[in-house]
Known about the structure:
Layout: E1 13-16, H1 17-20, H2 38-48, E2 52-56, H3 57-60, H4 67-84, E3 90-92, H5 111-130, E4 135-139, E5 144-145, H6 153-174, E6 179-183, E7 192-193, H7 198-205, E8 214-216, H8 220-225, H9 230-239, E9 247-248, H10 267-279, E10 286-288, H11 298-324, H12 326-335, H13 351-359, H14 364-368, H15 374-385
Parallel strand pairs: 1-2, 1-10, 2-3, 3-4, 4-6, 6-8, 9-10
Antiparallel strand pairs: 5-7
Helix pairs in contact: 2-4, 5-6, 9-10, 10-11
Amino acid sequence: MTITYEPKPEHKFTFGLWTVGSIGRDPFGSPVRDAKTPAELVYLLGEVGAYGVNFHDNDLIPIDATPAEAEAIKKAFRKALSDTGLVVPMATTNLFGDPIFKDGAFTSNDPKVRAYAIQKTLNAIDLGVEFGAKTYVFWGGREGTESDSTKNPLDAIKWNREAMNFFCEYALDKKYDLKFALEAKPNEPRGDIYNATTGHMLAFINTLDHPEMVGVNPEMAHEHMAGLNFMHSVAQAWDAGKLFHIDLNDQYPGRYDQDLRFGSRDIKAAFYLVKFLEDVKYAGSRHFDAHAYRTEDYEGVKDFARGCMRTYLMLKEKAAQFNTDKAIQSILADINADDNSMTAFFGKYSAAKAEAIKAHGFDRTGISKRGLQYERLDQLTIDLLLGNR
């Protein structure tokens, strides 16, 4: 039987309007695809089998739209959702595109800019909730500097904290069923962006008035830009109970933000990520924050979207195979074998336990001579991924 890897609603695959709606503009070239309306993009996603669609406020409603224009857009968008069965799990605010945000939004030196950013976000939160979003993401694309002569980082941290506390109180006051997720990025479009990694965000969350309402939205490309192991960042977020959302794509380390199709560059990193998410039974959306190549028309955009989902499902199958492969599991069992001789030394501290472990004699030479079979294990993983197991 041929396996088709068709996406199903239970897979919770989502795309942003800005992803499949990208018209291929870049700093060196004009658009290569005509713009589609939000409703048209919903129908496109329905055609490829996606579960949901996410949006920035101005992906859905242009920043200068009149109230009548906004209502017409929302009506068409709502009908498209109804026709396709797609849902809106997440929404966010564009706080980076308009010239007013050239020096940041919540961290701008100008209090008028900071106040406008709060106003814009409050309205965008209302819009997201109107369409059923349960998660609200904050990406501070302009929250940074090119020169540290220009901004006091302690002021920036304070202003950012005040804004997040304000939004938490707003959601509580409105009785919105909403969680906030913070998305880190090391640089671009700013020279340096505050809270550059998922670890930075986790530390920042602990300083908020309502940390229970705020988690993270790690993005694969953003962590790879910084040369980090994305799966490790995701694991830390999961361990902290803060993995509220996730952005999947691909990226060459040390380059500009490429937003490549998921699994198209580093299949091994993608595999370990999928395996982690499936092993811990992550129940949230698998959101693909990526773009089709600039070479593509809209048929190519559909190929891109289908490819993201197909690769995830193939890697999910490989993860299940890894977990049942006898040779792989035999090595893992050997690596993790425990004769319980050290059990008394672990766990909660006691003075007696500390003295006992200090007095114990370890065969340092004998222990160090043990081969761990990591080379063979890694090659078995490669064999599995390449279809030779």
